[in-house]
């Protein structure tokens, strides 16, 4: 990932997606907003206890920086599943439906979701000029949300998975993500080669889950041609990102967005 800090709202971008001027995207940090502790400062989550006025001010800050009308944002009510919504030409509003992924072939329609340990996944098909965004914690990973998003791009837009360029963003890493027996069992039932995703870093510790590799593997198994993995643990880097586990359950939400440009923007 590439860190950009020359503007008022710092953000990260992915090197493989930066190669395409017909696309805009970003993964934001916890910095650059107005929210007080423990949501300091660019909290973009509405249901975490922060004042709504602060959250709205934070949205307006980052959309202004990227020249995006605030009311054009498309997002979902995230439910830790694998449902994929297709975003069209009409604005979808703040919470159009319950889903953990969105795809679109409509230019200038920004897709955004929120995270605080779950995995951001961005996708772009430069051939069909379509993009998508997904949110996968352990439940979304078990439900194979990343794979479902690839399949939806194929069925809706005719995307060849080999043409898709994808990125797996900052999420809690295998260094910090200790999980219980329920999660271990679900991963073993739902993932190919689960032994590569589950580890025991020390003899005294519990089992740890690698969400990064799990979702990257799903993308590769679905035929995606290029996958970049950030490899940044939100819990280890909670001074940069919000982390539900690292912040002891009282935390904000950072966001990612992706948007197709029009030919006139190039």
Secondary-structure map:
Elements: E1 2-4, E2 11-13, H1 15-18, E3 23-28, H2 52-65, E4 84-87, E5 101-104, E6 111-115, E7 119-125, E8 130-136, H3 138-142, H4 145-157, E9 165-168, E10 178-179, H5 181-190, E11 198-199, E12 207-209, H6 211-221, E13 226-229, E14 254-260
Structure notes:
With 266 residues, the chain is α+β, with helices and mostly antiparallel strands. The chain has one domain: CNF1/YfiH-like putative cysteine hydrolases, CATH 3.60.140. 21% of the residues lie in helices and 23% in strands. It has six helices and 14 strands. It has helices at residues 15-18, 52-65, 138-142, 145-157, 181-190, 211-221, and strands spanning 2-4, 11-13, 23-28, 84-87, 101-104, 111-115, 119-125, 130-136, 165-168, 178-179, 198-199, 207-209, 226-229, 254-260. A six-stranded mixed beta sheet has the order 4-5-8-7-9-13. α4 runs parallel beside α6 (211-221). The model has no long low-confidence stretch (mean pLDDT 94).
Report a brief summary of the structure.
By secondary structure, the chain is of the alpha+beta class.
């Amino acid at each position: 990932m590439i860190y950009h800090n020359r503007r008022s709202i710092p953000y990260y971008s992915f090197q493989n997606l930066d190669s395409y001027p017909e696309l805009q995207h970003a993964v934001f940090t916890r910095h650059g907003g107005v929210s007080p502790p423990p949501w300091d400062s660019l909290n973009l989550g509405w249901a975490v206890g922060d004042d709504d006025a602060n959250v709205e001010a934070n949205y307006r800050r980052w959309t202004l920086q990227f020249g995006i009308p605030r009311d054009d944002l498309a997002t979902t009510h995230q439910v830790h599943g694998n449902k994929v919504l297709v975003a069209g030409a009409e604005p979808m509003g703040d919470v159009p439906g319950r889903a953990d992924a969105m795809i679109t072939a409509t230019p200038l329609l920004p897709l955004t979701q929120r995270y605080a340990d779950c995995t951001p996944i961005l996708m772009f098909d430069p051939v069909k000029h379509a993009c998508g965004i997904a949110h996968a914690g352990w439940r979304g990973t078990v439900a194979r949300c990343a794979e479902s998003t690839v399949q939806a791009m194929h069925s809706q837009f005719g995307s060849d998975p080999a043409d898709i360029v994808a990125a797996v963003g900052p999420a809690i890493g295998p260094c910090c993500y200790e999980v219980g027996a329920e999660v271990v069992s679900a991963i073993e039932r739902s993932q190919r080669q689960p032994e590569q995703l589950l580890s025991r870093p020390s003899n005294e510790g519990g089992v740890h889950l690698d969400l990064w590799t799990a979702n990257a593997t799903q993308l590769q198994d679905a035929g995606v041609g290029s996958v970049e993995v950030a490899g940044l643990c939100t819990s280890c880097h909670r001074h940069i990102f919000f982390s539900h586990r690292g912040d002891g359950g009282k935390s904000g939400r950072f966001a990612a967005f992706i948007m197709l440009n029009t030919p006139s923007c190039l």
